Amino acid sequence: MLRSCAARLLALGVPCGPSGCRDTLGRIPGPAPRSLGFETVFPKDCSLPKPSWSKDMRLLFDQFMKKCEDGSWTLLPSYSYKRLQDAQDFITFIHDCFPTTAKLVDKEQLSQAHIFTESFKDGLGFEYVMFSNDVEKRTVCLFQGGPCLQGMPGFVHGGAVATMIDAALGMSAIRAKGLVMTANLNINFKRPVPLGSVVVISTQLDNIEGRKLFISCDVRSVDKNTLYSEATSLFIQLDPEKNA
């Protein structure tokens, strides 16, 4: 069942595991996976540069793309799930992997739902791109917080920073174990992040104990001289057969 869920995650655009099944652009080589009828749902890869990206964001992106050339780092694709809830296969995915949880999903509410980090127009909210180094068990997220994420005037809301920390840590866990959920997240906020600035969220997989993954990260400025936040986390590899 886990393999079935992992296959569906791949079809949904979620890279999973250091199996060597992706090229330096994060794509699956060889025959394309079953489309599940999502061609119109994923019109573009949102990890690619946008006009709303700042010069710092684009410069860092280019630097990491250079690192991808030798295969040590991988660009992780990011697709817009804005209309994913309209696809029947998404409902099937939930029912297949989490039959108990699926009973709690209101299909009418789901039809109005949006992925949180994709609920803003380009440049206004969460601008980010992730790269992974599976050998070193590291993931890097380049994050630019737009004006709709303001908390204290002039700074990104701490909850928005926490969202991206959780996303980066979660991607690191997905790369290592596939289907996971956050069990614990501890964040120490050192300094507020200036609105519109670019920060680098660097994660490190510290340990695996059975289904438990312990992952840490820090959030720093582009020049690495300013530490904004530090975090530790615990993720649990899900077992769909046990609904846990």
Can you put this structure into words, describing what you see?
25% of the residues lie in helices and 25% in strands. It is an alpha+beta fold. It has a single domain, classed as Hotdog Thioesterase (Thiol Ester Dehydrase, Chain A, Roll). A 7-stranded antiparallel beta sheet has the order 1-2-3-5-6-7-4, with helices on both faces. Mean pLDDT is 78; it is low at 1-43 and 80-87.
**What is the second-level CATH architecture?**
Roll
Main sheet characteristics:
7 strands, antiparallel
Number of helices in the DSSP assignment: 6
SSE arrangement, N to C: HHEHHHEEHEEEE
The CATH homologous superfamily corresponds to Hotdog Thioesterase
Fraction of residues in helices? Answer: 25-40%
Number of domains: 1
Q: Cα-atom Rg, whole angstroms?
A: 18 Å
Question: How many strand units?
Answer: 7
- Our measurement of the CA-to-CA distance between the termini, rounded to an integer number of angstroms, reads 13 Å
CATH topology: Thiol Ester Dehydrase, Chain A
The side-by-side strand order for the widest beta sheet comes to 1-2-3-5-6-7-4
| Average pLDDT | 78
Instruction: Return the CATH class.
Output: Alpha Beta
Question: What overall form do the CA principal axes indicate?
Answer: globular
Structural class of the helices, strands and pairings? Answer: alpha+beta
Task: Give unreliable regions as ranges.
Answer: 1-43, 80-87
Strand portion? 25-35%
